[in-house]
Amino acid sequence: METNVVQVVNVAQAKSDGVQAFIMHHMQDSPVWAWTPSIHTTMPFGLTINAVMMLGVALLLIVCLGLAARNQDPVPTGLRNVLEFFAKYIRNEMVIPFLGEKDGRKMAPMFCTFFFFILVMNLAGLIPCFNTATANLSVTAALATVTLFFMVFGAIHKTGFIAFCKGFAPPGIPKPMLLMIVPIEVISMFIRIMALAIRLFANMLSGHLVIYSLLGMIVIFGFYALPALLGALGIYLLEVFVSFLQAYIFTLLSAIFIGERYHPAH
Questions:
Q1: Among the four residues 19, 79, 104, 132, which has the most C-beta atoms within 10 Å?
Q2: Where are the domains of the chain?
Q3: Per-residue pLDDT, 25
């Protein structure tokens, strides 16, 4: 009896180790794409899976947006109608309120690129055998660095270096207090960028880890864990919503952060 219990425990431990190895392999970036346990593809030109996903999403957006732009009907229909709805919402409700009419219209294409690029990468990661590039901190940090670039160099170009520096010193603060306030303001700018990258990365990574863990319970415990399949399906549907939500939040916060540096007086 005792021997049988030990064997069952050892089998369960072996399955658990296998599930953990599978999850880590599919969540980590790699130059090898594992389509199935027996079919593997090595990425060309030394690229990794996430790099290929980013290039694929960029190419897909270029093709889809190019096809939509060919429709010159006065009344937009189909894909162009959907894209115009999102683009106008991003410009009028997310960008212009924080950057003003002039800067908002000028920079709206960049924020639309943020939104659609992140959204499609998030959704692509929900397709079986595909990878979620936004579940990699390097990818989200690169996107957040673009926001930081405009917060610093874009603001310097718009307001001048002196005005940019004065933006870290709130008016009305006693001069001795500035020795403490200014460093805090500078550090907080970089903390916001770090939070911007980590928020997107953590939300996309955690959702996929939960799905893989619930499915792994079926591998470990067999038919007894079948209810976990309903939980995985629920988390999967939630991930579709989170994909839209995180693209929205990243774009909105980027507009807020850049607007703060472009218009420090407000």
A1: 132
A2: 50-262
A3: 60
